[in-house]
Structure formats: structure tokens, C-alpha cells
Write a structure and sequence with these properties.
The chain is of the alpha+beta class and 465 residues long. Helices cover 19% and strands 24% of the residues. The chain contains nine helices and 24 strands. The strands form six sheets. Strands 6, 7, 8, 9, 10, 13 and 24 form a seven-stranded antiparallel beta sheet that branches. A hairpin with a 4-residue loop joins strand 11 and strand 12. Helix 5 runs antiparallel to helix 6. The longest helix is centred in the N-terminal third of the chain and has 18 residues. The radius of gyration is 24 Å and the shape is globular.
């Protein structure tokens, strides 16, 4: 069993009893995390061999990748004991972390992935000297654990657009809007859930609860915007010009399709999805769970709902990954039950949600045999991907499948829905860098259902369950 952590938070007399720290050089800091999506700058570390730059005619920089902590004993005390104590110690000594994670980090060409307590700090906020001092401030009683500090700007800002979820396979629109809710109290209602900071920029709006209680209150309309809208319209205009004067069936189809796409979203009034119905304030460490509360509920205008199409929650898997490649990623270990099948129409239906208990004790295994949940999301910036506040929030941490699959998220992906291979709602993406952070869907639904007018809303689906 893991034992409780003892921290010395005064004077600098404490130390990591089993590890040592030395001053990081500028050269080491730039290449230490080669292979990670953002290749962050190393500030300080304990343990490991001294840095030696590559030499010789075939010298190359070895690349690293992230792995989950798995069944290591540190997970038993991380959430409620170790992480809060490290955070308190850092703040006591004037270091404000952007993130705290426990992961395995190792070289691609090695089988050893040591456990790392990974601390993120704002770029430029901590010097090498200060970092070395900080990592020498505590002692612990858990073997084989190192501590590393790197610069990491955990982004929570939205991109320039709130985009329409996938009503159909429209190649010009991607679904970062979140997920749909139906209302058992009124079957004509349809709601869209996303992150509040997409709808209301935190530095521009008062962080107060917003609710539209009745029609007499002015609406806060929400627009569906298109990525690079001017470029897309110019491209569609070019398509029309290329077939001008031709009357064959293919030319007519090309012209009509381009005309429809170029005019469908151009007028602003055509892009109003609906209005903000409810948006509680953004809170870190909310409720007994301690999660991030960053939620907005948008009521979709009736004119945007096609009665002939039973709108449900789907993720368009797109064409970034071939069906066989994505299927292999979602089934990295033969011990797993196959819960993912690539749909023939590329639309993965969302239904139900992953419980907190399963998030903490997954039933699946990754390629290294460690317990995990393989997840997907569709975002504005990255497309389909598999795999400065004193008070901190607990969030679901998600890492890429490997260093070849690219980052799981990027700026502009906030509000994306994250699901597992069976289509169960996992979470709403709130931010991240090399590690993506998300608020569990069960908590999001709990907050929404606690608001009386939305007490009977539920995850809208078209899949029989």
C-alpha cells in the first residue's frame, strides 16, 4: 500500500530522499521533451542521468511520449493527498502551477517509462535556478517517482467560432458544439451543451449565472460560424466559375452544390442556432466532486430543427483515419471487449455516459497492458483525435495514443464532446496542452438537471438502448 506523503514547506531544508536534482541547461531544456506535441521547455527535474548532447555523425535527438500511470501505488493517494499537498507547497514558495499530473514519460525506443509527477508552470514564470530549488523542497516515501517542472500554458480560451454540431455530413462544418439534450417535459425542445467560456469570454463578461426565464428577456443569440468562412465562400465561387456554360449533369450538380454551400451560411440570420438558455458561473473545484464547472446550455431555434430528421448526437468520424487504422487504435489490447465498430456512414451515435467509478477504475487496457479508456472527440481545430488560479479543479486527463497520432486537442477545441468507442458520453473538453483536460459528463448533466427548468433534460439519441 502507498503511504501518505510528508512535505516540508519551509526554509528549503526538505528534499526528495530517493532522488536528486541538478540545474537544467538551456540546451537540455529545449530537447528534453522532443516528440511530445508541444515539446515544452523543461525547467527542473529529479532523478535520471545527467544530460549529454548527441554526438557523432549519426547523432539524433531521442523522442519521448506519454503513458498513463496505470496501477502504480501512487494513484491510491494522488487525488486526495499527494496532489493537494504538492500544490500547497508550490504556492507557499511562490510557484503557481498551471497543471499537476502523474504520468509515465519515456523514450520511444525504450521499454522503461518511469512515473513522473509532472508540474506545469506559465512560460517565463520560473527560472532554472528557482525550479531546482522547488523540486528540492519535499521528501516522500514512495519509490521510483521523479518530479519534473516544465513550461505549460494550459489554454482554456475558445477559438473564433462556435460551430454547429453534425446534423449531417457537411464537410464545411465541424461539431465542437458539444452534445444535444432532449426534454422529457417538452418534446419540441432541443438543447445544445457546450463550454460557457466559448459563449461568454471570461475577461469580457461578469461571471454570474445567466438564465433566460421567459420570452420577455432579451435573447443572447448564438451563431454557427464556419472555419475560414471567406476562404470557403471564395472556393465555392470558384467551383461555380469552373463549370459555367456547361449543361452536363455533373456540371449542374457541381454548380448547384457550390451555390448552396456559398449562400447557406453567408447571411448572419441564417447562422443563428438559438440562444443561451442557462449558463451557470465558471467555478473551479465545484461541488463535492471538485470538478471544473464550465457549462452553457443553448436552446436551438425550432426553425433549425428538421422534423423529417430525428436529430440525435453523432460524431462524424471524417476521413483523418482509415477505418482499419482507427479500429486498431480503439482496440490496442487483445484482452479488451470490442466496443467499437466503424459505422458504414461514419457517424458514431452518442448514448449514455461513462460513470465516475469507471473513469477511476477502467475495464479496458492500453497497448502496454495498463488500464485505460480509449476515447474519441471531434473538434474545430484538430478534427477527429483518438486518443494562474490558486484553487485547483479535478479534471479527466487525456493523453494522445502515441506521438505519431498528434495532440488530442488544440486551442479552439474547447466544448468538444469526448466519447468512448461505444459512443458513451465521457466529458466536455475544457482545455489542455500536451495533456487534455475535460469535465466528466456525469457532472455536467448533474449541474444542468439541478436547474429546475431543465430538470428533465436527457442525452438525446437515435440509438436503441
Amino acid at each position: 500500500m502507498a503511504r501518505s506523503l510528508e512535505l516540508v514547506a519551509s526554509g528549503g531544508c526538505g528534499h526528495w530522499t530517493l532522488q536528486s536534482s541538478s540545474l537544467v541547461s538551456e540546451a537540455e531544456s529545449k530537447v528534453y521533451y522532443a516528440g511530445l506535441p508541444s515539446q515544452p521547455k523543461l525547467i527542473a527535474r529529479t532523478g535520471g542521468l545527467p544530460y549529454e548532447p548527441p554526438t557523432g555523425p549519426e547523432a539524433y535527438t531521442r523522442t519521448k511520449q506519454l503513458r498513463i500511470a496505470g496501477t502504480h501505488e501512487i494513484r491510491e493517494i494522488w487525488e486526495d493527498d499527494l496532489a493537494p499537498k504538492i500544490d500547497a507547497l508550490l504556492r507557499t514558495h511562490g510557484v503557481d502551477s498551471t497543471s499537476l499530473d502523474v504520468l509515465r514519460i519515456g523514450y520511444d525506443d525504450d521499454t522503461s517509462y518511469p512515473i513522473i509527477v509532472w508540474i506545469g508552470v506559465e512560460p517565463g514564470s520560473v527560472s532554472f535556478e528557482r525550479g531546482a530549488e522547488v523540486v528540492g523542497l519535499c521528501k516522500h516515501h514512495i519509490d521510483d517517482v521523479n518530479l519534473e517542472i516544465r513550461e505549460s500554458d494550459v489554454h482554456r480560451e475558445a477559438g473564433p467560432a462556435l460551430l454547429e454540431p453534425s446534423f449531417d455530413i457537411d464537410p464545411t462544418v465541424e461539431g465542437t458544439g458539444g452534445f444535444f439534450l432532449g426534454d422529457a417535459a417538452d418534446s419540441t425542445k432541443l438543447y445544445l451543451v457546450t463550454a460557457r467560456h466559448i459563449v461568454y469570454q471570461p475577461d469580457q463578461e461578469n461571471n454570474q449565472v445567466y438564465e433566460r426565464k421567459n420570452p420577455s428577456i432579451a435573447r443572447n443569440d448564438v451563431l454557427a460560424l464556419i472555419n475560414d468562412q471567406d476562404v470557403i465562400i471564395k472556393y465555392q465561387t470558384g467551383r461555380i466559375s469552373r463549370v459555367a456554360g456547361r449543361n452536363d449533369a455533373m456540371a449542374v450538380m457541381e454548380s448547384e452544390d457550390a451555390e448552396d454551400l456559398s449562400t447557406k451560411w453567408a447571411p448572419e440570420e441564417h447562422r443563428i442556432l438559438g440562444f443561451v438558455r442557462y449558463a451557470p458561473p465558471i467555478v473551479v473545484g465545484a461541488g463535492v466532486e471538485g470538478y471544473t464547472q464550465d457549462i452553457a446550455v443553448i436552446e436551438i431555434d425550432a426553425s433549425k430543427i428538421d422534423p423529417a430528421f430525428p436529430t440525435g448526437n453523432v460524431i462524424d468520424l471524417g476521413r483523418k483515419f482509415a477505418p482499419d487504422a482507427l479500429t486498431r487504435m480503439m482496440h490496442p489490447n487483445v484482452k479488451n471487449t470490442h466496443n467499437f465498430s466503424f459505422p458504414s456512414d461514419r457517424l458514431l451515435h452518442i448514448w449514455g455516459y461513462i460513470t465516475d467509478e469507471e473513469m477511476r477504475k477502467p475495464a479496458m487496457y492500453d497497448q502496454e497492458g495498463e488500464r485505460c479508456i480509449m476515447v474519441l472527440k471531434r473538434g474545430r481545430t484538430t478534427g477527429l483525435t483518438g486518443d494562474g488560479i490558486a484553487k485547483k479543479s479535478k479534471e479527466w486527463a487525456i493523453i494522445p495514443f502515441d506521438n505519431k497520432s498528434g495532440p488530442f486537442s488544440a486551442k479552439g477545441d474547447s466544448g468538444s464532446v469526448i466519447v468512448d468507442g461505444a459512443g458513451r458520453l465521457g466529458s466536455i473538453l475544457t482545455g489542455g496542452a500536451d495533456v487534455t483536460y475535460a469535465t466528466p459528463g456525469s457532472f455536467v448533466l448533474k449541474v444542468i438537471n439541478a436547474y429546475q427548468p431543465l430538470a428533465r433534460t436527457y442525452i438525446k439519441n437515435t440509438k436503441a438502448v
